[in-house]
Design brief:
Elements (H helix, E strand, L loop, with lengths): L1 H11 L5 E6 L2 E6 L2 E2 L2 E6 L8 H10 L4 E3 L7 H10 L3 E6 L20 H18 L5 E8 L8 H21 L5 E6 L4 H7 L5 E5 L8 H7 L6 E6 L20 H16 L5 E9 L1 E2 L2 H6 L2 E2 L2 E2 L1 H11 L9 E6 L4 E3 L3 E9 L7 E8 L4 H4 L2 E3 L2 E4 L3 E5 L5 E10 L5 E11 L1 H4 L12 E4 L8 E7 L4 E7 L9 E6 L3 E9 L19 E8 L4 E7 L14 E7 L4 E6 L10 E10 L3 E10 L1
Parallel strand pairs: 4-5, 4-11, 5-6, 6-7, 7-8, 8-9, 9-10, 10-11, 12-13, 16-23
Antiparallel strand pairs: 1-2, 2-3, 13-14, 15-17, 17-21, 18-19, 18-22, 20-21, 22-23, 24-34, 25-28, 26-27, 27-34, 28-33, 29-32, 29-34, 30-31, 30-33
Helix pairs in contact: 4-5, 8-10
Length: 598
């Protein structure tokens, strides 16, 4: 019995120790005393728990030995367990909010005034370290991501720096066995870290394209005697590239996307004395603009960065080559929407496999989500006789993609641009993504379109659980809203962008919907609540184009409630679900499920 207790104790505290050492002017990362060269990827499959084993087996075949995350969540322990099972290490991300909308996201946090928000981030950071510090898969703590570049003034950056030092110094006291990394774009954090955040052990630098070759020089210029990790890397991003004649950024070719990773790792990263390695961005599968530019997979098809990671880390060439687009040219000029235009297209494939061709497009104006949206284009023709595409109902310059698939599940993509004329689209006030119906505000807790960040009234007594499983109408989860006080009013709004009250363009075009419905109940009969959609009024720059709700008396049984929307302007709904209620003598619990526009 005593031996069993000892074994249990050892298993619970058999953490792995990460150290950094400088040997003959070269910084070395060691795990349990052995050198560890970071051959990593940023990991985009945190939500797909059931396939963790498959992903790690795949990454092992590419020569990857570590992944990076940006934050922790409900699946973090399972992710760490799977990583340990397959011999991987994890840079565990700790998220810090951004000071203004920018390259990273649409948040706007005030490091000068929001003391409560900073305490919440501090508490989350410490809890994260306390929870996972003894897990053997932990490599380092990745605190924050590109906060400096997304913060406006030096005064705010100084306040953030002091807060960051508080977080990092306390993490160091809690966990002496794992170094602290903080992450910034390019070199925008170096002077602030150097002056105000001495507790950072390793500088994390996100850098794309050939610029990564100059980071060692930038460190040397500032006499920084610390190691660094390339925490994001890939082909040059659109922010550093010129525009074409239509004002659309010129995307690198598939060949450039491949060669940048292979050459970059060999010639710009692995040979630098202070560089501990790289996390290539991004091991993920997505349908959007950013995925086409940088991800390993698009719509479940394999892209050049996937095979480039394999060659960079193992020296092995692709098992099967991605089809190559040798030429893709659109006609000059501006054309009305609905026009069929001819495209000049030449493609090739090393293995001479049968190729499937399709077309899609992207708008580069409007909200962040609209700019990231890729939509299908109607087309006709074939590789022998040529292709035509039908221009969509958009106004202005659009980016058109040609997608070439082979029988090995590889996908080659090239892009060009064209001007489209459409008076109706031109007159659209709020350019946000148009959605397909039915459009769920809430069905399950994964992949929410809106975020429950609009807390109102006595919000400190309010708790919103998006993952409630004990009482659901359908599926696996429901929303449970609990209010613990016996008096006062409260409210919650599910909004896009998160944490915004109408100052940033967001939301969705749901114009075709005829109804808005939801299922709801309460713990006890008689709770009166007002539910609906729309919150931001026209006194704000970017309001909801419709605000509608119903006052209902909830019972302890699930019931469906419906609001007719046919005559409403749903062209920009940025508050997808809004609830208000008041407590009269008793705490309240409300359940909501299947919130949908149809």
């Amino acid at each position: 019995m005593r031996l069993f207790a000892i074994l249990v104790f050892i298993s619970l505290f058999s953490f792995s120790q990460t150290q950094i050492e400088k040997i003959q002017n070269n910084w070395i990362l060691k795990v349990d005393g052995q050198p560890f060269d970071i051959k990593g990827v940023t990991f985009g499959y945190e939500k797909d728990v059931k396939n963790y084993d498959t992903y790690f087996e795949d990454l092992e075949s590419l020569g990857v030995n570590t992944i990076r995350t940006w934050a922790t969540g409900k699946n973090t322990l399972q992710l760490l367990d799977a990583a340990e099972k397959h011999g991987f290490k994890v840079m565990v991300g700790i998220w810090m909010r951004h000071g203004r909308p920018g390259m990273e996201d649409d948040d706007h946090f005030d490091y000068l005034k929001d003391k409560e928000g900073m305490e919440a981030m501090y508490t989350t950071s410490i809890k994260t370290v306390e929870t996972y510090k003894n897990h053997p898969a932990v490599l380092t703590w990745g605190v924050a991501n590109e906060v400096y570049i997304n913060t406006a003034t030096d005064e705010e950056k100084l306040a953030y720096s002091k807060f960051l030092e508080r977080v990092c110094s306390n993490i160091k006291a809690l966990d002496p066995n794992h170094p602290i990394t903080s992450i910034e774009a390019w070199t925008f954090g170096l002077e602030w870290w150097q002056k105000y955040v001495p507790s950072i052990d390793i500088y994390g630098l996100n850098s794309y394209g050939a610029g990564v070759n100059f980071l060692q020089d930038e460190m040397d210029k500032r006499n920084i005697d610390k190691p660094y990790i390339i925490t994001e890397f890939g082909v040059t991003g659109e922010w550093d590239l010129p525009s074409d004649k239509n004002g659309i950024k010129i995307e690198p070719s598939d060949s450039e996307k491949y060669e940048t990773i292979v050459k970059g790792y060999r010639e710009w990263i692995s040979n630098k004395p202070s560089c501990l390695g790289v996390y290539v961005f991004h091991y993920n599968n997505g349908p959007e603009f950013g995925s086409v530019w940088l991800a390993t997979h698009v719509n479940s098809y394999t892209r050049p960065p996937y095979w480039a990671i394999r060659e960079a880390f193992t020296g092995k060439k692709p098992q099967n080559n991605v089809p190559k687009v040798d030429a893709f040219v659109l006609p000059d000029g501006a054309f009305k929407s609905g026009t069929w235009i001819s495209v000049e297209l030449m493609v090739s494939d090393v293995e001479n496999e049968k190729l499937d061709v399709s077309f899609s497009y992207n708008q580069r104006t409007g909200s962040r989500k609209r700019r990231n949206q890729i939509l299908t284009l109607n087309h006709r023709g074939n590789l022998s006789d040529g292709f035509e595409v039908e221009l969509p109902e958009e106004d202005g310059a659009i980016k058109i993609y040609v997608n070439v698939k082979d029988s090995y599940n590889n996908l080659g993509i090239a892009s060009s641009s064209i001007q489209v004329i459409d008076e109706k689209a031109k007159a659209t006030v709020y350019k946000v993504p148009k959605v397909d119906l039915p459009f769920y505000v809430y069905k399950e807790s994964e992949d929410l379109s809106y975020f429950p960040s609009g807390y109102m009234g006595n919000y400190k007594a309010l708790n919103v659980d998006l993952n409630h499983t004990n009482d659901v109408y359908s599926g696996e989860t429901s929303i449970r809203i609990t209010y613990k006080e016996r008096s006062g009013w409260y409210g919650i709004a599910f909004v896009d962008p998160a944490n915004d009250w109408g100052d940033i363009l967001g939301g969705y075009d749901i114009s075709e919907a005829k109804t808005f419905s939801f299922w709801a109940k309460s713990k006890f009969d008689g709770v009166v609540a007002k539910l609906g959609f729309g919150l931001i009024d026209k006194d704000k720059p970017f309001p909801d184009t419709a605000i509608k709700s119903v006052e209902i008396k909830l019972t302890s049984e699930w019931k469906k409630y419906t609001i007719k929307t046919k005559r409403l302007d749903l062209s920009c709904i940025r508050s997808g679900l809004v609830l208000f209620a008041s407590s009269y003598g008793h705490p309240q619990t409300i359940y909501i499920d299947n919130v949908v526009f149809e």
